[in-house]
Amino acid sequence: MQILINYKMTTNKTFTMIKPDGVANQHIGSILNDITAAGFKIVAMKYTQLSAEMAGKFYAVHAGRPFYNDLVSFMSSGPIVAAILEKDNAVEDFRTLIGATDPAKADVGTLRNKYAKSIDANTVHGSDSNENAEIEGNFYFTAFERF
Ligand code: CMP
């Protein structure tokens, strides 16, 4: 009998937002198309707008950093699309798909390279760990809103 053990810590879910710039610039359809073409399945999705208070809570981990106030103000400035995505190794693969935080440094073909204009308006969020994917997904969706 052969026993296979996978030592790499992987997960099959991540959380994303199409940020206010991505929605305002009419990129929702193209971004969702790129995401599904890369093999991610959308298992929850919501078009909504964050209040400043909710944006502050979502980004509490950045409280105190110089860009925090601008971040909260930008993220509550217009509608966003929030979604939970499923794929093997979802967190890492989605971070690769979106590219570097600063679009000027994002690899060609990544979502931020294709659609983003600045480090503040960087179009797409992707969870940075399995733990945060769980926390961020729970921030937006109840158990009855996932499939
Ligand atoms: P994201 O990683 O999705 O969530 C935090 C956001 O803060 C980040 O995207 C950027 O849009 C924004 N931000 C602005 N300035 C910085 C910075 N110097 N370092 C990291 N994030 C920044």
SSE blueprint:
Blueprint: E1 13-18, H1 20-24, H2 28-37, E2 41-48, H3 52-58, H4 68-75, E3 80-86, H5 90-98, H6 111-115, E4 124-126, H7 130-140
Antiparallel strand pairs: 1-3, 1-4, 2-3
The structure holds adenosine-3',5'-cyclic-monophosphate.
The site of adenosine-3',5'-cyclic-monophosphate (CMP) has 8 residues, from loops.
List its salient traits:
Alpha-Beta Plaits; 7 helices; 147 residues; 37% helix; binds adenosine-3',5'-cyclic-monophosphate; four-stranded antiparallel β-sheet; globular; alpha+beta; single chain
Q: How would you describe the overall organization of this protein?
A:
With 147 residues, the chain is α+β, with helices and mostly antiparallel strands. The chain has one domain (13-140): Alpha-Beta Plaits, CATH 3.30.70. The protein has seven helices and four strands, in the order βααβααβααβα. The chain has helices spanning 20-24, 28-37, 52-58, 68-75, 90-98, 111-115, 130-140; strands spanning 13-18, 41-48, 80-86, 124-126. A four-stranded antiparallel β-sheet has the order 2-3-1-4. Helix 3 (52-58) crosses helix 4. The radius of gyration is 15 Å and the shape is globular. It starts with 12 loop residues before the first strand and ends in a 7-residue tail after the last helix. The model has no long low-confidence stretch (mean pLDDT 94). The structure holds adenosine-3',5'-cyclic-monophosphate. Adenosine-3',5'-cyclic-monophosphate (CMP) is lined by residues 62, 67, 71, 101, 119-120, 122, 125.
